[in-house]
Amino acid sequence: MIRLLAREWARFVATPRLWWFTLLLPVMLPGLLLLIFSKQVPDRLPVAAVDLDQSAVSRQLLRALDSTPGLKITVNLPDLTAAASRVRQGEVYAVVVVPRDFARALIRAEQPRIQLYYNRQTLTAGNLVLREVRTAVTTTAIGLSVAQGVSPAVLLQSHALFNPGLEFGRFLALPLAVAVLHVLMVVVALDVTGRELRNGSAGEWLNAGGGSVVMALLGKLLPYMAWFVLSGLVILAAMLRLLGIELDGSPGIWALGWLSLVLASFGLGAFLLGLFGNLRLATSVASVLVSPAFAYSGMTFPASAMDGFAAFWAQALPLTHFLHLQAAQVLMAAPPAAALGSLGALLLCSLLPVLTLPRWRRWLTDPDSWGQA
Amino acid sequence: MSRFFRTAREELRVIFGDRAVVLVMIGGSIFYALFYPLPYQSQVATALPVAVVDHDGSALSRQLVRWIDASEQVRVTVNTHDIRPVRDAIRRKALAGYVEIPNDFGRRVLRGEPARIAVFANAAYIVLYSQVANATASASLAFSRNIVEQRLLVGEERSPEASLALAMPITVDLQELYNPDGGYANYVVPAVLILILQQTFLIGICMVQVGRRKQGRSEGTPSVMVARLGVYLALMFLLFSFYLVVVYNLFGFPHLGSAGVALVAVLPGFVAIILLGFFLGCLFSSRETALQVMMLASVPALFLAGFAWPAEAMPGWLVKLGRLIPSTGSIDAFVRVYQMGAGLAEIRAAWLGLWGLVLVYAIAAWWLAVDRGQAN
């Protein structure tokens, strides 16, 4: 084992690429995501106004919209045609149109309607604008009703559980950081093992392991796994801190989940290389498994709405299991027992390389399989 | 001219003679475009399970529950007085949220006092929260308006219209633009298609470049570079047409723009991608490095593109930095032209910006090629 570790250390020191993969990128990629989502909640999203009424009331309404934190009326335009072009130019996410005779209709109690044209192609921004405009107009409308002695029958109060500020940082930046670390770990697992085959040093590697395939694999991968378990915990803990998240559930279960994801990621890498015996091919296949993994994870689009193959595939991916475990433990204060299924799935994934041990033996002993790019 | 075609044919031979390149560049482009939309295929989540914690149990509260249940987005699966099992179920994600109705709800409504109800939804998953909050807001607003209207009609001599107007003096007409159903696939996939094409071509081009360098062949003259660029551009357009025709029809994505304008819109972006590939191909030392780098770059590139997360909410300098990635401007131009029906005049700034990138990467690729050529 000592021989293996010393050999791996020498290889690591001589390979700048591995410094990037293990020292720089694990900090830089989550850091970049933190920067992208540094503003937790988008505010002052640009909206165009078309005020066809030009009355005191219409101006009052538009001022009310402009002063809601989520919106900013950046431009006043004479007609809808001009405003629609601004949407297509990507300058505004929505257009608010106040109809002609708005003030008169209001006085005559004819229930004037304002129009909100909002961009649903950019769904996140569009929905935020929609929510803000609806809230502002409803508040103004209720104010007007109350002024006339009519009060609403039912008032609804909305509470955002586990994320009171509706912050996108905790909802997206944290899971995305895990997603990139997951990709990174699979890449590292494939790289350190695959290059031995590619460069024809696999025999030497097996010798250092005393001829045992299991020993050779463990001696190579364990140092990287230990490093990612520790550095990952530090990085993710730092992210929680920077995102202002109090870990509400069980820190132990969360850490255990992370450990299992590290094992599963390296397990996946060792399994795929064992299967294909070729760094490039194994990396290509790994990319199919890990690159779209976030889309399948159900963190954004609900897993319950996926059907057939997608629902099955989501459950087959290790990332899905950790991300839901993390959301449950970190944000939702879920009981530790809720994590059992996820932990089991991750540990199962980390055992995958066992299936390919016979093939590993072949790759490590058959010089004909070496040197393939 | 004949030399141009000779170089182009030679490059095609290199590409299609290399299993690894074909697998990623052609196979990957097709596979990912069909694989990526699958989780979003149902477009919107419907019938999310919610509970009602009804402390009142009056006829009115039961009526309100029916109104909420009638919405397409949520389904009331539990109706109880006990809040604890409901909270547990939310933690286990068996429920997306719950509505709490206080015990004086019915009485207050009958007395004409505003009655308060509350909705609690799981905002650890913002999509769940929005859906539950929106559905209950719409239902309770309609319920409330209905009651006020009835009150006014009974109480005084008023026309139904006037009662309605008093109950809600202003209403908002919602006009959804470009993605009428608010479909998730319609929102994500068009942009992701561009990113897929960028990543697979960057990998493929780098693999060819590195392979060529390993064989000790020089990078060639500008005219050789132009001929090779033509080959990759033709392949990109071919695959892009496959997206617009096959992928769009298969998944039924709506679009307002025409394919012709879309091709013009993405042209500078595609040229920039290829030139960036030439440039990176000179930097990487082994064929696998490109694959590894692109796997790691795709998530940041997707979010820097400014469609999934609004650019307005990112630091300004980061937005500018993100524009150095060809996919950022290409996604912007393509989505606005093809999804939103923008004319070329309306994407002018993004389009010219992409030509600027072409210039930058052309110079960079050429400079590095010369530099490496001298080193050889």
Listing every helix as H and every strand as E from the N terminus to the C terminus, the arrangement of chain A reads HHEHEHEHEHEHHHHHHHHHH
| Percent range of helical residues of chain B | 55-70%
Oligomer: heterodimer
Structural class of chain B: alpha/beta
Q: Helicity level of chain A, as a percent range?
A: 55-70%
- Gross morphology of chain B is elongated
Low-confidence runs of at least 5 consecutive residues of chain B: none
What's the helix and strand layout?
The complex is a heterodimer of chains A (373) and B (376).
Chain A (H helix, E strand, L loop, with lengths): L1 H12 L2 H21 L8 E7 L4 H11 L4 E6 L3 H9 L5 E5 L3 H6 L5 E7 L3 H25 L6 E8 L6 H31 L3 H7 L4 H30 L8 H26 L2 H12 L2 H4 L11 H9 L1 H14 L8 H11 L6 H9 L8
Parallel strand pairs in A: 1-2, 1-3
Antiparallel strand pairs in A: 3-4
Helix pairs in contact in A: 1-9, 2-7, 2-9, 7-9, 7-10, 7-11, 7-14, 9-10, 10-11, 10-14, 10-15, 14-15
Chain B lengths: L1 H15 L2 H17 L12 E7 L4 H11 L4 E7 L2 H9 L5 E5 L3 H7 L3 E8 L3 H30 L4 H8 L3 E7 L6 H31 L7 H30 L7 H25 L3 H18 L11 H7 L3 H14 L8 H28 L1
Parallel strand pairs in B: 1-2, 1-3
Antiparallel strand pairs in B: 3-4
List key phrases describing it.
heterodimer, A: 373 residues, four-stranded mixed β-sheet, 16 helices, elongated, B: 376 residues, alpha/beta, 2 domains
Describe this structure in words.
Chain A has 16 helices and 5 strands. Chain A is an alpha/beta fold and 373 residues long. Chain A has 2 domains: 240 residues, no CATH class; 103 residues, abc type-2 transporter like fold (3-Layer(aba) Sandwich), CATH 3.40.1710.10. Chain A is elongated. The two termini of chain A are 29 Å apart. The relative contact order of chain A is 0.11. Chain B has 376 residues and is an alpha/beta fold. Chain B has 2 domains: 233 residues, no CATH class; 120 residues, abc type-2 transporter like fold (3-Layer(aba) Sandwich), CATH 3.40.1710. Helix content of chain B is 66%, strand content 9%. Chain B contains 14 helices and 5 strands. In chain B, helix 13 runs antiparallel to helix 14. In chain B, 52% of the residues are buried. At the A-B interface, helix 2, helix 4, strand 4, helix 6 and strand 5 of A face helix 2, helix 4, strand 4, helix 6 and helix 7 of B.
